């Protein structure tokens, strides 16, 4: 039983209660409970198992007893009974863009729909178009969402597999016959999405280790169980390969299976030029007079080819081999460099946690500042703030700031970029803020040049500190609107506008492929979680992984700066920065 499982069960209960049309307060209590479990400072699983959860804020008596049952027995009767009231496939429906609890409830109650395949059939026979509250447009949208899901059936978000990878690595490390453990492949390279996971171990007992791998608690089915390679499918649907090699082969296998394929091809041809043939097991000499280099670690492979070590995130054959030859591999940013972060929401708009709770979590994370930017009035579906509520929030922030030592909340706004590129607030309001994130949230169907002009116009505003989620993409869910990245980067450089790396797991926007260009033009990046709850502030770690993939160094990232430097920067007019 892990903390995450406890939280997930509570969240599922909340969802099931919502489907049943239960009292919203009860629903909220479970959702809040899940957040509390995630953020709890202490061994929550052990405490729950020992029934010692009394008096914890956010966990009432009912929740306390359920957590105890869950942690001590591994399951919860209340949860199981609730689940039994609905078809097992009903949870898939929530993955579809545009389907929330209300709609899923309606689909289930009126048409008995309890899975995506049933929904698809209903769409295809036109039943959804006739359903009150749905209509033809929704039917078309749902069919599109289902098609998209089918396309991405074997694609997983980096963030979604990260906890799994950590757990599996830990279990492998505990195996007495395993001396070295690594995860390779696209996961190690920090690709925003991955198709399968590639684990690697060094062992003298490959057969035994391969067999044991198939018994991991995460495994759903065994695809192949060989002597040195095993493939399994995990419960969440992702395929997972394990390769068992000798200690001497390990660095070579790690280098090979980390990829990318394009990087490997280039490295191999470089090796050949030096008279060495390289594969997943080792070096061999093409000509007898060539000496075989000694390799203990992966870095030795690069060194012996005359290259500096290439961090896995950069291995995409996009200039990293040239940089490693010229000794210009950048020193990449690390999580410990971050001093604060921007673009966060609170209960004032569509966030789940209060201003105070968000600040407390940021302090807990060791940050010196936190930028709050709730939605502006045009984002009414997100309860965007009008001028009065924004000024009230500014007041609240000022009062809180008076009580902090070595920490500060910055008062901002995530101001909507309207269709014509103007902003949702007047300059008279924007000028009072500490900072401002400008984002597109509606009218996505402009042409590329119209959308680019719209965004550039917003960046020209002297109060727009940073541009939010450049393309609006939702990974595996929704395509980006079309924008000309190169032009936006140029405009950001000219107007001294920061571009955010929105590290909400579905966004990771701007895409890593564009950051080196931005960096080289002197555009600053801000790693922003776009957090709608305290737990999601932790996504800055994911942001750092993608920033590394984008070749960014500490100095390229605005929120690595100290509170003092950031205060100074924000007070300086854009054209003087
Ligand atoms: P994905 O699709 O997210 O699983 O991406 P990867 O990069 O993890 O790809 P995967 O799992 O098929 O293979 C892992 C690594 O193994 C890959 O990055 C490079 C290496 N590799 C696989 N097939 C080939 C190949 O045909 N040639 C070379 N040079 N390398 C390969
Ligand atoms: Ca892979
Ligand atoms: Ca693989
Ligand atoms: Zn936004």
Kindly describe this structure.
It is a single chain. With 577 residues, the chain is α/β, with parallel strands linked by helices. The protein has four domains: 3-151, DNA polymerase beta, N-terminal domain-like (DNA polymerase, domain 1); 156-247, Beta Polymerase, domain 2, CATH 3.30.460.10; 258-325, DNA polymerase, thumb domain (Beta Polymerase, domain 3, 2-Layer Sandwich); 335-576, Metal-dependent hydrolases (TIM Barrel, Alpha-Beta Barrel). 42% of the residues lie in helices and 14% in strands. The protein has 24 helices and 16 strands. A hairpin with a 4-residue loop joins strand 8 and strand 9. Helix 1 (3-19) runs antiparallel to helix 2 (24-39), helix 8 packs across helix 9 (135-151) and helix 20 (448-460) packs parallel to helix 21 (485-495). The chain is globular. It starts with a helix and ends in a 6-residue tail after the last helix. 43% of the residues are buried. The mean pLDDT is 95. The structure holds 2'-deoxyguanosine-5'-triphosphate, calcium ion (CA) (2 copies) and zinc ion (ZN). 2'-deoxyguanosine-5'-triphosphate is lined by residues 185-186, 191, 194-196, 198, 256-257, 259-261, 264-265.
């Amino acid at each position: 039983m892990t903390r995450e499982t406890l939280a997930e069960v509570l969240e599922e209960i909340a969802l099931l209660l919502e489907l049943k049309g239960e009292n919203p307060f009860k629903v909220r209590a479970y959702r809040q409970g899940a957040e509390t479990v995630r953020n709890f400072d202490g061994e929550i699983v052990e405490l729950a198992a020992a029934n010692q959860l009394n008096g914890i804020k956010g966990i009432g008596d009912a929740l306390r007893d359920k957590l105890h049952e869950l942690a001590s027995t591994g399951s919860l009767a209340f949860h199981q009974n609730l689940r039994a009231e609905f078809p097992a496939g009903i949870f898939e429906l929530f993955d579809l863009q545009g389907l929330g609890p209300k709609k899923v409830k309606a689909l289930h109650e009126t048409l008995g729909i309890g899975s995506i395949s049933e929904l698809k059939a209903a769409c295809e026979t036109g039943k959804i178009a006739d359903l009150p509250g749905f209509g033809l447009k929704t039917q078309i949208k749902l069919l599109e969402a289902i098609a998209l899901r089918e396309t991405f059936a074997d694609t997983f978000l980096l963030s979604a597999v990260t906890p799994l990878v950590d757990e599996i690595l830990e279990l492998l490390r505990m195996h007495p016959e395993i001396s070295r453990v690594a995860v390779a492949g696209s996961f190690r390279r920090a690709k925003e999405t991955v198709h399968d996971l590639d684990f690697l171990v060094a062992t003298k007992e490959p057969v035994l280790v391969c067999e044991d791998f198939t018994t991991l608690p995460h495994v759903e089915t065994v695809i192949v169980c060989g002597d040195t390679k095993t493939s399994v499918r995990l419960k969440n649907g992702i395929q997972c390969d394990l390769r068992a090699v000798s200690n001497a082969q390990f660095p070579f296998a790690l280098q090979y299976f980390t990829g990318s394929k394009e990087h490997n091809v280039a490295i191999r041809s470089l090796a050949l030029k030096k008279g060495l043939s390289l594969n997943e097991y080792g070096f061999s000499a093409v000509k007898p007079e060539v000496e075989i280099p000694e390799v203990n670690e992966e870095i030795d492979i690069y060194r012996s080819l005359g290259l500096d070590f290439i961090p896995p995130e950069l291995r995409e054959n996009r200039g990293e081999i040239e940089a490693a030859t010229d000794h210009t591999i950048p020193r990449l940013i690390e999580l410990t460099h971050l001093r604060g972060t921007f673009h966060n929401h609170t209960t004032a708009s569509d966030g789940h946690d209060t201003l105070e709770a968000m600040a407390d979590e940021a302090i807990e994370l060791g940050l010196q500042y936190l930028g709050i930017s709730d939605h502006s009035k045009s984002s009414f579906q997100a309860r965007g703030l009008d001028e009065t509520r924004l000024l009230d929030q500014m007041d609240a922030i000022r009062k809180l700031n008076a009580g902090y030592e070595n920490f500060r909340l910055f008062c901002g706004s995530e101001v909507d970029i309207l269709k014509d590129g103007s902003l949702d607030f007047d300059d008279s309001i924007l000028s009072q803020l500490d900072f401002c994130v400008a984002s597109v949230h509606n009218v996505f169907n402009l042409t590329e040049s119209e959308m680019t002009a719209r965004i550039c116009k917003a960046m020209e505003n002297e109060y727009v500190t940073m541009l939010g989620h450049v393309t609006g993409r939702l990974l595996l869910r929704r395509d980006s609107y079309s924008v000309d990245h190169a032009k936006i980067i140029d405009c950001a450089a000219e107007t001294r506008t920061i571009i955010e790396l929105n590290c909400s797991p579905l966004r990771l926007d701007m895409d890593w492929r564009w950051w080196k260009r931005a960096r080289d033009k002197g555009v600053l990046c801000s790693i922003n979680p776009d957090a709608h709850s305290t737990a999601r502030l932790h996504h800055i770690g994911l942001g750092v992984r993608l920033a590394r993939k984008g070749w960014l160094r500490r100095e390229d990232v605005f929120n690595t700066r100290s509170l003092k430097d950031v205060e100074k920067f924000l007070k300086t007019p854009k054209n003087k920065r």
